[in-house]
What does this fold into?
Amino acid sequence: MGFNEVISMIQDWTLKITILAWAVVGLSWVIGWALRGAPIPIARFKRIGHGIVEDAVVAALWLALGSTVFYLISFLAESFLPPATINVTVPVRVR
It folds into this structure.
């Protein structure tokens, strides 16, 4: 496994995990607001919903910062890659 393959594999994993994490943040945001705004006369549910919304905001902040750091690391790793060599061979003719 070459250096290019390792970098592309790490970028692929980072992208997939980041998409999954954003989906979880969005889901928790929706669930939190649903609990907070529900017409349930129990204040405990509303406090739980408020806590979930706050956690989703903090998670979104850390996720944005973390994905930026991973992007910068992958950008720097790609910029330090050695230049690619292309081997050109003459086609063989069979008579």
In short: Residues 15-79 form one domain. The longest helix spans residues 43-79.
